[in-house]
Amino acid sequence: MGILEVKDVGKRFGGLQALGDVNLSVAENSVHAIIGPNGAGKSTLLNCLVGKLIPDTGSVMFDGQSVLGRSPHEINQMGISRVFQTPEIFGDLSVMENMMIPCFASRDGSFRLHALENMMNEKDIVEKAEAMLEDMNMIDKRHMHADSMSRGDKRRMEIGMCLAQEPRLLLLDEPTAGMARADTNNTIDLLKQISDERDITIAIIEHDMHVVFSLAQRITVLAQGTPLVEDTPENIKGHPKVREAYLGETQVA
Ligand SMILES: Nc1ncnc2c1ncn2[C@@H]1O[C@H](COP(=O)(O)OP(=O)(O)O)[C@@H](O)[C@H]1O
Ligand SMILES: [Mg+2]
Asked: Is 176 in the pocket of ligand 1 (CB under 6 A)?
């Protein structure tokens, strides 16, 4: 039994079957990658895991509890944090202010509206946010406007904001998309460090096979809403079904 168990999940958008019969088991403390061509249903699947979408059929269990019908906030409270495909940060706030928000939210388990000036007076929140920025190697950038950072730094900050919530399952949707190679390599190192040092399970949707093969212990290949193969990276490389799924794309050479 994995910490995350997806059983027979289906999702339609009008006439389009975005997810067919998806079964997925993610082992605790592993890194599990979900790959597949554009439009395969990867983001839809992720949205079903975090309460953004409710599947038409099937079940999604996290640590023995169903996530279906719960709000994104409740799912967050269960220990699931996610980084979406488009960075979700407050661009007009500083790096430090962004980092303080999840630190505050995780402290008492409920996100209350709270003026940032008041948060600034709460020593434990400031200390936690600073510690997270240290962990992310971003403490020097604490006063920068979040919007003025590079794509790689924004991603790193977002990952840090997720970790501040102390999740047991971290979901990442194409974390290295649009990044320069150096930033991608830094992100790989950061995610390796996170998975080595923390009690955490990571499910990552990723297009860049260098990232996938550097991090994942298991890989699920999704095509047209259905898992084609699930296997180790060694077995996935050169798998005929994987080549077939990527026909016309060049990611799996
Ligand atoms: N909200 C939506 N409404 C209608 N169609 C959607 C919606 N979200 C995704 N789709 C469609 O579902 C399919 C799967 O999309 P998506 O999960 O985003 O794929 P991927 O992340 O693998 O690229 C695509 O054909 C996409 O156009
Ligand atoms: Mg997507």
From this structure: no
